[in-house]
């Protein structure tokens, strides 16, 4: 049995092991009980102690492996043909960071995956390919490179690739590890295996895509955004306009959240998403916050320092920032902007009152690196 003894921490548990206590701990364990003081300092850390470590996944290394899956497994057998990104500290729960899952899904020309629904919420960010479609609760959406789409929890969804000239690779993001940590997972296969989509493609984008709330909007009472897809072009254009009007954040450059147009809140109750633009040559200052973030490089090249470690990135790369880890980003291109897509668990942190943020005070706001 380990002890929680620490002689520098008055007010903290500091009981040293003795033969009597060791025997006592054994007696408690036999009755499915334990002594709080023997674990108190571990289960009540001074500040978050994530098991996740910062990781960068290089797209050029993963892409050939993702394409290999196309030949190795057929979509029907695999259900979804996905290479998941696994944080070395979170293998036990298949998380890329914290309680967030992400993976790269590949769909060959003409392929279609069957419909299902589950308690976990999902989002998609398209890496490559032109023929991607998804049907979410009967609404068919077409999505292309750098588009962002959501599959809120409980919605029926299926997807495929209707092009004949190459595979689609998109990134899935899910709150699966969170749902499982709360023992709240359910999963159902669609009774007819495929949905019958409505005739209008991208109807939520046509309805909500222009900052105008349409007649009848008050009938929308679900806890997620009725807008299901956020195309790249207007998103990028908005960030460029925002960059003309505002300095942006010292920590994130010109950053904006994808929102539920009805509430102005996050797109889903458990996961939020942002797109951010770093001006040519811009280097942000370091900050940290509770909540985990998975970034995907949408455009450009640069580097981020996360927990004192430097990670160089370029388009398609994915990296993660564990909760409470210091992080800062730089655009290494002096002539063009760089864009980072990201998703996070901030809505969970905020709604539970767990959100905290802190600026790095020393060294002009930059972390020392090894
Ligand atoms: C899922 O339903 C999809 O619908 C992708 O494409 C990845 C990972 C875990 C659990 C469900 C999809 C998933 C998933």
TrEMBL record:
Keyword Transmembrane among record annotations: no
Keyword list, A-Z: Dioxygenase, Oxidoreductase
UniProt xrefs under InterPro entries: Cupin_2, GDO-like, RmlC-like_jellyroll, RmlC_Cupin_sf
CDD domains, alphabetized: cupin_GDO-like_C, cupin_GDO-like_N
UniProt-listed SUPFAM superfamilies: RmlC-like cupins
Pfam family name, one: Cupin_2
Organism: Streptomyces lutosisoli
Domain Cupin type-2: start-end pairs: 104-170, 276-338
UniProt-recorded name of the protein: Cupin domain-containing protein
């Amino acid at each position: 049995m380990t002890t929680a003894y620490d002689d520098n921490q008055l007010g903290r548990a500091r009981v040293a092991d003795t033969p009597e206590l060791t025997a006592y701990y054994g007696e408690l364990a036999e009755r499915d009980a334990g002594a709080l003081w023997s674990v108190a300092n571990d289960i009540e850390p001074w500040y978050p102690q994530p098991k996740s470590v910062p990781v960068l996944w290089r797209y050029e290394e993963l892409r050939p492996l993702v394409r290999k899956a196309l030949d190795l497994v057929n979509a029907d057998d695999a259900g979804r043909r996905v290479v998941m990104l696994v944080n070395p500290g979170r293998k036990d729960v298949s998380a890329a960071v914290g309680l967030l899952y992400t993976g790269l899904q590949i769909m060959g020309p003409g392929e279609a995956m069957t419909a299902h629904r589950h308690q976990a919420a999902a989002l998609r960010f398209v890496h490559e390919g032109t023929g991607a479609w998804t049907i979410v609760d009967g609404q068919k959406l077409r999505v292309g490179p750098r588009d962002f789409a959501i599959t809120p929890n409980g919605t029926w969804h299926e997807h495929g690739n209707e092009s004949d000239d190459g595979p689609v690779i998109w990134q899935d993001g899910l709150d699966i590890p969170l749902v499982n940590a709360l023992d709240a997972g359910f999963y159902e296969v669609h009774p007819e295996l495929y949905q019958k989509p409505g005739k209008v493609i991208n109807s939520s984008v046509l309805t909500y895509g222009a900052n105008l709330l349409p007649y009848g909007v008050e009938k929308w009472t679900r806890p997620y955004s009725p807008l299901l897809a956020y195309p790249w072009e207007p998103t990028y254009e908005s960030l460029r306009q925002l960059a003309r009007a505002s300095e942006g954040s010292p920590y994130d450059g010109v950053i904006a959240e994808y929102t539920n147009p009805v509430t102005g809140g996050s797109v889903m109750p458990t996961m939020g998403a942002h797109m951010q633009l770093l001006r040519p040559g811009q280097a942000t200052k370091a900050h940290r916050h509770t909540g985990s973030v998975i970034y995907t490089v949408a455009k450009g090249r640069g580097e981020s320092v996360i927990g004192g470690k430097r990670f160089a990135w370029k388009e398609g790369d994915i990296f993660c920032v564990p909760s409470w880890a210091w992080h800062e980003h730089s655009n290494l291109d002096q002539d063009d902007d760089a864009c980072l897509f990201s998703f996070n668990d901030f809505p969970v942190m905020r709604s539970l009152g767990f959100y905290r943020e802190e600026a790095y005070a020393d060294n002009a706001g930059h972390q020392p690196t090894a």
